[in-house]
């Protein structure tokens, strides 16, 4: 037995020694494992807990700020009319916010335009610098002037409100003819006092909403950059649908650098602007409840809304006029990045769709009818009512089983 095993081993050894090495033999350790990079989309990096929390906060802020603007304007006008009208006849209970020297009124509302600019100017600068590839002249000449124009309207309207009140008002003590003198001597000045608080609160809120719009789909820029860099690195021959495909390499590099540098600051400023916009709405409600008459508040609200609409919805979107609209740049980053599909995938998808189409034009059979050996047990309602549907009769091999007729007692 042992001799037989030895002979078999010797035969196997001799065959192994005399056999030529086949071309199919290979050593996997010596093979270079290569992955085909063309036609594939780069995967995203793992999302950290910090990034998830940041995205959640930004999502809440976007839902708050980008509430339907038309509906918000309508709510402003309706609230100014009805809440103020009720307040003119039914005094609301006094509270801390009814005092003119409350903290929010003194340090925020009275210098409200300062707070609006302190957050909106750097936000506009960082977003516009990123979208224009660091073109400072374009930012200074075509984007920052929007806030300069808004400041001009704010100053002009509030100054006009004071002129109207001083010119067409009167003191209850007729020996005083100016508002300042009347108030200094403890008298009461009665005039048409268009609410500067209502104007600045509504106008600031609408300006913040408009200037915050570049943050919409801001994260798409990162995906566009990743896809375009991958496409250029592997020299993909397939036509690219990326919005950054027409950028030069230098512009692409500057965009990536500024995006990585300014995005944390842009997010932080956006959160601050959201909180400020919420504060403006709260203080607007307080103004409706405790200050001015209804007609004075409605007039201020209408002026603020008309000024906002004229500038941000009519003036700036006109390409023939200066300055540029919010978020104007050389690429449309606010559209979703399109996934790259190879020709093979497209052909495979087309073949699957073609295979899924029915080959005949026969009417569809309802699949929820119980069947026995492939044949329906009973007729459908359409078949029972003879709605132009032919049914095979018993004995023709189609329906071997028919339910018995109902019996009546």
From TrEMBL:
This protein's record includes keyword Transmembrane: yes
Keywords: Endoplasmic reticulum, Hydrolase, Lipid metabolism, Membrane, Transmembrane, Transmembrane helix
GO molecular function: coenzyme A diphosphatase activity
Classification via InterPro entries: FIT, FITM1/2
One GO BP: lipid droplet organization
Cellular compartments annotated: Endoplasmic reticulum membrane
Keyword Transferase set for record: no
Residue ranges, annotated region (Disordered): 1-25
Entry's transmembrane regions: 73-92, 112-134, 265-292, 298-315
Main location: endoplasmic reticulum
Any single GO CC term annotated in Swiss-Prot or TrEMBL for this entry: endoplasmic reticulum membrane
Topology in membrane: Multi-pass membrane protein
UniProt xrefs under HAMAP family: FITM2
Name of this protein: Uncharacterized protein
Species assigned in the record: Polypedilum vanderplanki
């Amino acid at each position: 037995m042992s001799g037989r095993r030895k002979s078999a081993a010797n035969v196997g050894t001799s065959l192994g020694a005399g056999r030529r090495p086949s071309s199919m033999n290979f050593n996997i350790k010596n093979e270079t494992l290569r992955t085909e990079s063309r036609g594939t989309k780069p995967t995203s990096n793992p999302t950290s807990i910090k990034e998830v929390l940041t995205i959640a906060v930004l999502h809440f802020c976007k839902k708050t700020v980008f509430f339907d603007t038309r509906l918000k304007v309508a709510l402003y006008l309706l609230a100014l009319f009805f809440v103020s009208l009720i307040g003119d006849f039914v005094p609301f209970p006094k509270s801390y916010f009814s005092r003119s020297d409350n903290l929010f009124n003194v340090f925020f509302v009275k210098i409200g335009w300062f707070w609006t600019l302190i957050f909106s100017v750097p936000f506009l600068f960082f977003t516009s610098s990123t979208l224009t590839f660091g073109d400072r002249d374009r930012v200074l000449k075509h984007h920052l002037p929007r806030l300069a124009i808004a400041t001009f309207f704010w100053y002009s309207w509030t100054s006009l409100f004071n002129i109207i009140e001083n010119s067409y008002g009167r003191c209850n003590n007729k020996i005083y003819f100016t508002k300042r003198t009347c108030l200094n001597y403890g008298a009461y000045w009665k005039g048409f006092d268009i609410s500067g608080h209502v104007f600045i609160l509504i106008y600031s809120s609408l300006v913040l909403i408009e200037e915050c719009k570049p943050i919409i789909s801001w994260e798409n820029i990162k995906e566009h950059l990743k896809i375009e860099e991958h496409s250029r690195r592997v020299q993909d021959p397939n036509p690219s649908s990326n919005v950054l495909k027409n950028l030069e390499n230098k512009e692409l590099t500057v965009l990536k650098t500024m995006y990585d540098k300014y995005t944390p600051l842009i997010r932080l400023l956006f959160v601050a602007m959201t909180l400020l916009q919420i504060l403006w709405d709260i203080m607007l409600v307080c103004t409706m409840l405790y200050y001015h008459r209804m007609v004075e508040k409605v007039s201020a609200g209408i002026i603020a809304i008309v000024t906002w609409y004229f500038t941000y919805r009519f003036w700036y979107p006109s390409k023939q006029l200066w300055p540029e609209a919010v978020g104007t740049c050389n690429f449309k980053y606010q559209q979703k990045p399109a996934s790259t599909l190879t020709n093979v995938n497209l052909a495979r998808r087309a073949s699957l769709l073609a295979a899924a189409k029915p080959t005949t034009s026969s009417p569809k059979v309802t699949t929820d009818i119980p069947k026995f050996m492939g044949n329906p047990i009973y007729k459908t309602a359409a078949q029972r009512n003879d709605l132009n549907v032919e049914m095979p009769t018993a004995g023709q091999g189609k329906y071997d089983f028919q339910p018995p007729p109902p019996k009546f007692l």
